[in-house]
Amino acid sequence: MSYFLVLSKRHGESVLSQYQRLREDRRMCDIVLESRGVEFPAHRSLLACASDYFWALLKEHTLESGAPGPLSLPALSPSGLERVLDFIYTSWLCLSPSTLEETLEAACYLQVTHAVELCGRYIMDNLTLETCCYFANVACRYGLSEALKVADWYIARHLWELLGLEGEERAALMELNMESLRNALASEDVPRVREHDMLKLALDWLHHYKLSPLQSNLLLTNMRFGLVAPDDLRQLSADRTALRTPFINSLVQKALDYHTQGALQPLLQSDSTRIRATGSEVVMVGGGAEVDRPQRIIQSFDTASRKFRTLASQLPARLQHHCVCAIGGFLFVMGGEEVTSADVDGDGESEKTNQVVTVSERVWRYDPRFQRWDEAEPLIQRRAQFACCVVDGVIFAIGGRVEPGEEPLSTVERYNLRAGCWRKGVTLPNAIHGHACTTIGNDIYISGGIHGEAAESSRDFLRLELFAGDTWHKRASMSIARFGHQMVTVGDRIYSFLGMFEQYCDIERYDTTRDQWTRIRPLLNDRFCYGLSATADGRIMLFGGRKWHNGQEVVMSNVMEYDTETDTWRELCRMPGPLCGTKCVQLPILHTAET
Fold it and tell me: Per-domain residue ranges for the chain?
């Protein structure tokens, strides 16, 4: 015997509709709710089904179940009670910022769970600069954990805008509950806000509420004092008593000591000195829109939002054929050719023939916390078209050349920040320039380049095992001779990309366990003098560069992306303009409201 189980979605709606009609006509109402002199006829059965409060209150054995007269609810406002009753009878809840709290108060008191959930959803869906602080306070007061989490995230993300408000809107920030403010101060994702401004907000808030030293310490422990300039930190400590409690004063003193460490700062990173950022951005150092005419601009690229920004601080010099690396959130720019102009033509544009090119040994260190450049210890030798890498906090500068046409360099030098000077490293088996470099663990790999006075590129691939010997060892040669190319490591594999003077677009991948190169999907067009960077999830990006088109070099303005998992290429996005000769490095960047 067969049967069918059929559901009517309209039945429930019809029952509620009939209940609402009975309520409007005051028919069959068997209870009256009273709030501050206002009475609301209702039906016991529906109230008990919709509210845990009424379910417990209207049982047969309770005093209230048989009491004559209205059931008084003095804790609730009439309008709040009315809205919750409307929801019980219709499933519709009318909310606005002005009615949210009294409605939520009634829903929580009467334990109408679905109405409470809708209030939380309303908060999450209607956050604005004008409402976020108020909504966070309401969510905190009534224990709406999910809504509070979303509101706190919104406040942290938009704190730079909130700090710019004035009048009543700025006053709302001062009324923010302590939990939300503490979450904002502890967040990694507070874009475009200087730590100095966050510290001033916290101190102003503490002055407004005059909390105990213990509560004050609990809030201020979320500050990153190492990101506040030392002069500002001393001034605030002198003016604000909250910074002079023994515990917080010890954190301030540690930050002041950090600021005196100079060249050692990259090695002394801690939670108090790390820039608030959910990840590093690709920083493009140097290069320009025209061949051999580098500019001083530095751009950053956010891989998540695909946004390009120009940093406020420019390179100290116009560089090409230089090297870059990062240690502890600091950027190092080394060597290369410094390009200067002898004079200017009538249109204000530097003539190519008037440019002076000098190979440099200078090393610059950039601190993104304060957008400041410092000149570090120079290289032992002037170098251009060389390679560099970082292993265990030590910078290695490998090979290169001093002047075009001269014998390239076979020397290697290493910079230990603790020692504060460059020292000679393990010499290369051949003088070489135009080669590429990458690392895996404590091993350094270099490939290609031009050896000595040879006119042709090399296929050689060498490895130096640090701490396990003092010799460069040959590994399996690349299938293609390359010059001016680049390499990058993803996991335990090395990828070798396009170089100069190549009439083909093949890419190769090196397997360290098998000592073997494999050709992978080529780029559709040749490209050289590009920027290269890899992400943590196995994507490799090529920024700009040059290619041959109808017998001429063309500077590109797009970003190409290679996915190592799927072995596929795609155009990721367009750059603000053409760019070639840039060098890329991953770095956390602080973008302030002015940038």
Answer: 8-126, 281-343+352-587
